[in-house]
Design goal:
Elements (H helix, E strand, L loop, with lengths): L1 H9 L2 H35 L6 E6 L7 H8 L4 E11 L16 E5 L5 H4 L5 E4 L11 E4 L1 H6 L7 E5 L2 E9 L10 E4 H8 L6 E6 L5 H11 L3 E5 H44 L1 H9 L4 H38 L7 H18 L1 H8 L3 H7 L1
Helix pairs in contact: 1-10, 2-8, 2-10, 2-11, 8-10, 8-11, 8-12, 9-13, 10-11, 10-12
Length: about 375
């Protein structure tokens, strides 16, 4: 039966090839567009990896977060460590502007003991060294790999903060593929003295366990005025939900193309059944049952869907590869996307062949042979 189905498909190579192209494009769109959401999700998870126990605390007033507020937060149940983080923008051109617009360099200020919470505990230094306790009060900077590479900087070079202030690069972080690549890390004490301010705008709070991080965030919001706290765990969940919604909408665009290709299968199979009325009539006259005819036509449409699905996976993977290589976009073809694409193509092929198959199985052999 399978051999007969393949032989019937080979009778009209061009027609079936065009149908296969339509399915491949539709399934390819579903997979390549889906890979955008999958890639963004993977990038987000990678960026927040190992941060499930962290809580971000931001000031909602211009006064910032004082030392007293930091001490109050440290006494909240479940808090293991409070990490003050300052963010400052230099008044000098940092390069990398858009359409010629000058943008300053962002300086992230932390206490040297807390730097691993910013760059990651498992990240190594490519050249030079990390910040040390004796760097407090000094104009020392630890920079990311891409920041140094894009500006052709090395250990010992200086970064202009403006107002005749230069920071010496003491170390360059290894390439991570994440936010740390563009980082400029300086001692918090130095920046507070330079800017003549004690309060800061942002804290990172490390919870004793990832399971209590959301509770810690709620307690901070309830007990500390003029701040807003959100756990990284809750943040990842919110972003994942938003990405999931966007991903479904984007994949729906590709699904429309695939459904149109499914209609092409229906038309092709109707034409095939119409052209083979005499053949089907003879088969039924010599004993073929309705079930056998139904199975054969469904096999033919299923084969078209299956081959179209395989080609669609190849098209989708190629699209994701091009996005990664040409546009540096984090597209990722996951196993789930491959299974979804193949399953959708197979169901589409079988579903599109149902009406032609049912129509073929209901043919009356006597009437067909008399007509032919």
């Amino acid at each position: 039966m399978l051999r007969i189905s393949i032989r019937n498909l080979l009778r009209h190579k061009l027609r079936n090839a065009l149908t296969l192209i339509g399915i491949a494009v539709g399934i390819g769109l579903v997979i390549s567009l889906g890979s955008i959401g999958a890639g963004l999700t993977q990038s987000m998870e990678s960026a927040f990896e190992g941060s499930a126990d962290l809580v971000s605390v931001s000031s909602t007033s211009q006064d910032g977060i004082s030392g007293e507020m930091i001490e109050e937060i440290s006494y909240i149940d479940g808090v293991e460590r409070v990490i003050p983080v300052g963010s400052y923008i230099s008044s000098m051109d940092g390069g990398g502007g858009f359409m010629g617009i000058s943008v300053g360099v962002q300086f992230t200020a932390v206490n040297p003991d807390d730097q691993d919470y910013i760059i990651g505990p498992e990240i190594f230094i490519d050249r030079g060294r990390k910040l040390e306790e004796e760097d407090n009060g000094k104009f020392a900077a630890l920079v990311g790999y891409k920041f140094a590479e894009n500006r052709d900087l090395e250990v010992g070079d200086e970064i202009d903060y403006g107002n005749d202030t230069l920071f010496e690069i003491i170390g360059i972080i290894e390439e991570t593929g994440g936010d740390a690549d563009g980082l400029v890390l300086v001692p918090l004490e130095t920046m507070q003295e330079l800017e003549e301010e004690e309060n800061i705008q942002t804290l990172l709070v490390k919870a004793e366990d990832a399971e209590v991080s959301e509770t810690v965030a709620e307690d901070i919001n309830m007990n500390i005025d003029d701040v807003i706290a959100i756990s990284y765990k809750a943040l990842v969940r919110q972003i994942s939900e938003a990405l999931g919604t966007v991903n479904l909408a984007v994949m729906g665009i590709g699904a429309v193309s695939a459904i149109v290709a499914g209609l092409m299968i229906t038309v092709v199979m109707i034409m095939s059944v119409t052209e083979r009325r005499r053949e089907i009539g003879i088969m039924k006259a010599i004993g073929a049952t309705e079930g056998m005819i139904l199975k054969q036509v469904l096999q033919e449409s299923g084969i078209i869907g299956l081959i179209g699905g395989i080609l669609g996976v190849a098209v989708g993977w190629s699209g994701a590869f091009l996005m990664n290589s040409l546009f540096d976009f984090p597209a990722a073809v996951t196993l789930w996307l491959v299974i979804l694409g193949m399953g959708f193509a197979l169901i589409l092929g079988m579903g599109a062949g149902l009406y032609p198959a049912w129509n073929a199985s209901r043919l009356d052999p006597i009437q067909v042979l008399r007509y032919e």
